[in-house]
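Work Package 4 report. The design task specified in the project plan requires that, given a folded chain encoded as C-alpha cells, an amino acid be chosen for each position. We show below one input record used in the internal validation round.
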C-alpha cells in the first residue's frame, strides 16, 4: 500500500455552494496567559452578542474558538464592533478565508480605536490623524475632530490595525521647529486586564511582567 505521506494532493472544489460560502466563519483568539474555560467564554460571548440564532462555536485549542455564523450580516456586524472581552481578556476575531487552514488564521494584528492626545490645536485636523494612523499600522478610519469647523474634542481619534505581538506604541515626539519637542501620547480604548501597563504587551498583567518597560515620556 502506498503511503499518503510526502504526496501533494489537489482536490476539486464542489460545484455547488459549500459550507464555507454559506456561512461566515471567524476564528477568535483569547489574548491571555492563563488557560481558559471554553464553556465560560462561549456563554459570555453569546450573551454579549444578543444570543444570535444559528451560530456554532467550536473549541479548536490553543485558546482559539471557531464561530460559524449562518447569518453573515450578523457575523460581520459583530466583527465591526469595538473590542470584545471576557473576564478582562480581549478576544481577537479574524476571518477564516477560503484556502486557509484554520491554523493559518493570523492573529498577530488587531484593530483598536486610539485617542491621540497632546496635538497642538493648529494640527487638530483629520489629515493629521490619517498620517499618524498610517505610521502606526493599517489605517481603517480617522475621525474629523471638527463639526462645521468647530473643534468638538481636544484629541484625535483613529482606528488602526496594529501588530499586537510587539509592545503597543505609547506615543511619539513631535518636532515643533523653534519650540522644544512635544510628547504626544496614545490612549487605547477599552483595554482591560489583559494589557500590561509596564511593557505595553497584550496578554498578561503588570504584576507578572518581567519585560523591559515600554517607552514613555
Amino acid at each position: 500500500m502506498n503511503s499518503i505521506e510526502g504526496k501533494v494532493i489537489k482536490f476539486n472544489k464542489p460545484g455547488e455552494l459549500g459550507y464555507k460560502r454559506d456561512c461566515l466563519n471567524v476564528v477568535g483568539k483569547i489574548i491571555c496567559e492563563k488557560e481558559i474555560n471554553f464553556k465560560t467564554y462561549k456563554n459570555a460571548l453569546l450573551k454579549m452578542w444578543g444570543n444570535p440564532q444559528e451560530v456554532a462555536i467550536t473549541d479548536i485549542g490553543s485558546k482559539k474558538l471557531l464561530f460559524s455564523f449562518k447569518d453573515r450580516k450578523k457575523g460581520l456586524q459583530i466583527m465591526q464592533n469595538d473590542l470584545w472581552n471576557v473576564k478582562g481578556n480581549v478576544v481577537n476575531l479574524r476571518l477564516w478565508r477560503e484556502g486557509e487552514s484554520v491554523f493559518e488564521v493570523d492573529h498577530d494584528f488587531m484593530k483598536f480605536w486610539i485617542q491621540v492626545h497632546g496635538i497642538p490645536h493648529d494640527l487638530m485636523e483629520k489629515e493629521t490623524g490619517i498620517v499618524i494612523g498610517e505610521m502606526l499600522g493599517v489605517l481603517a478610519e480617522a475621525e474629523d475632530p471638527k463639526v462645521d469647523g468647530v473643534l468638538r474634542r481636544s484629541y484625535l481619534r483613529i482606528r488602526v490595525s496594529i501588530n499586537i505581538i510587539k509592545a503597543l506604541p505609547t506615543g511619539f515626539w513631535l518636532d515643533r521647529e523653534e519650540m522644544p519637542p512635544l510628547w504626544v501620547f496614545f490612549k487605547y480604548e477599552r483595554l482591560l486586564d489583559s494589557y500590561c501597563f509596564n511593557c505595553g504587551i497584550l496578554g498578561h498583567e503588570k504584576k507578572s511582567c518581567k519585560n523591559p518597560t515600554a517607552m514613555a515620556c
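Residues 38-48 form the longest helix (11 residues). Validation will be extended to a larger panel in the next phase.
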